[in-house]
Amino acid sequence: MSALDLALQRAGSASALARLLQVTPSAVLQWQDVPARRVLEVERFTGVSRHALRPDIFGPALQGAVSQSSAPDGAMIDLMGDAA
Question: Which Pfam families did the record assign (predicted)?
Fold first, then answer.
């Protein structure tokens, strides 16, 4: 599962993420990668690390590092975007 797929799953759907970002669902569905200007918002809303979403911009995640999710269940995820 890609980091974008994980973010969509955590948001509930592309439509739900689009509402949070105030963009159209079709815009979200067209993404191959989260646009650079949206990465921090997606991270905040879904708990999926910026490093997992765009390692080309923010660098790779450090092994074993975790980020507190802003997801309602408060789950911890590692910076590669996998559930911990």
Answer: YdaS_toxin
- The DSSP letter of residue 62 is P
Element (H, E) at 16: helix 14-21
The two tokens of residue 68 are 């507190």
Q: How far apart are CA 63 and CA 16, in angstroms?
A: 30
Nearest to 73 by CA among 29, 10, 1: 10
Query: What six digits make up the tokens of 61?
Result: 């995640």
Q: Which CATH superfamily is domain 3-78 in?
A: lambda repressor-like DNA-binding domains (1.10.260.40)
User: Which pTM was predicted?
Assistant: 0.73
